[in-house]
Design goal:
This protein is of the alpha/beta class. It has ten helices and 18 strands.
């Protein structure tokens, strides 16, 4: 990977004290960049927010605070925007907080970047902007199923069918140019972040690398909140002597990518914002190796020598069935390819410190 613009940069990391943000901060510092961190310490991500990350003081401020953001962007070369309220949430009572943190916060950040003349942005987006992944019907070719019906889910019919003939669909790789169809509040706010950033780029001549993270796991995940990732939820259950509970039939496909690889992807994207044309360019950040949720739970339980997973048949309406990414664009344009396999990554994760 080439150094950013052939030189080191002063980078503002929003959410730099969070799970992914702290790994990105350490990777930037290791590469020789200067880092400023701003983080609100939101309780969905922190029980006790850190005041320092890898020797860098954390500026405790909300992105909706224009004065604080204006001070944070002053004098920086680029922004790596990790701050967000994540997960599907608990219920619709979360909706205003999601929109406030993710979309209003991003709008304030972009406005202050424009005022300060900062033109490079790496945006932490998510695979949830796709809704369901890509599918193929044996008879009708590529298919886009509608949102799954509650009655079908309750009856245990989890796999979407061809909207034309009703036959089963085969999951396929979803690329960055796929139709975007968010199916949860969180997903809608992540897509709005991309749209806002694209508008900002057009009006300022800025460059945005939007990194659509797939299922990120690794050391430092939040341990026990309703917003924790599935890997942390499964680990907490096994450590407590309980069998991890797997929703649906456990056969839903995901791409689990280690946070260390995600941090490397951010470095590659930072370099790209110094080299690429203006505008927004999206990238799947994934391992390229799909795994079912049930397989991941079983592997983690085995590593911890705990009880085997229990498949419950329960479901969450905002979940999609299968989403498997094509990592080809990130490989070709960023030079990024994930290097940590799931067995290796989960073996490390099983014994690593989590965020309290």
């Amino acid at each position: 990977m080439r150094p950013y613009g052939r030189r080191m940069a002063h980078v503002l990391v929003t959410g730099g004290a969070g799970f992914i943000g702290s790994h990105v901060t350490r990777a930037l510092l290791h590469a020789g960049h200067e880092v400023t961190i701003i983080d609100t310490g939101h309780p969905a991500a922190h029980h006790s927010p850190p005041s320092i990350v890898a020797g860098v003081p954390v500026v405790p401020a909300d992105l909706r605070d224009r004065a604080a953001v204006a001070a944070a962007v002053r004098g920086v070369d680029a922004v790596v925007h990790q701050a967000a309220m994540v997960g599907l949430g608990v219920d619709l009572d979360d909706l205003p907080e999601y929109v406030g943190c993710n979309d209003l916060g991003t709008a304030v950040l972009l406005a202050e970047m424009a005022r300060a003349g900062v033109h490079r942005l790496v945006l932490a987006s998510s695979m949830v902007v796709y809704g369901e992944g890509a599918y193929t019907c044996a008879e009708h070719g590529p298919a886009r199923p509608p949102a799954r019906d509650v009655a079908d889910l309750a009856a245990g019919r989890f796999d979407p069918a061809c909207p034309t003939c009703g036959d089963p669909l085969t999951p396929a790789l979803v690329g960055e140019d796929a139709l975007l169809d968010p199916r949860s509040v969180y997903a809608a706010t992540k897509l709005a972040q991309e749209h806002l950033s694209a508008v900002w780029a057009r009006q300022t001549g800025g460059t945005v690398a939007a990194l659509r993270y797939h299922n990120v796991y690794g050391p430092g995940m939040p341990r026990d909140t309703p917003y924790s990732g599935v890997a942390a939820i499964f680990r907490s259950a096994v450590e407590a002597g309980r069998a991890p509970t797997v929703f649906e039939d456990g056969r839903q496909l995901r791409d689990f990518v280690h946070v260390g690889d995600v941090a490397r992807a951010n470095l590659a994207a930072l370099d790209a914002t110094g080299q690429a044309a203006t505008g927004l360019r999206a990238y799947n950040i994934a391992s390229g190796t799909p795994t079912t949720v049930g397989e991941m739970a079983a592997l983690l339980a085995a590593v911890l020598d705990g009880p085997a997973p229990v498949v419950t048949g329960q479901f969450r309406l905002g979940d999609v069935r299968h989403i498997v990414a094509s990592p080809a664009r990130a490989d070709a344009e960023l030079g990024f390819r994930a290097g940590i396999g799931l067995t290796t990554g989960l073996t490390e994760f099983a014994h690593a410190a989590l965020r309290g």
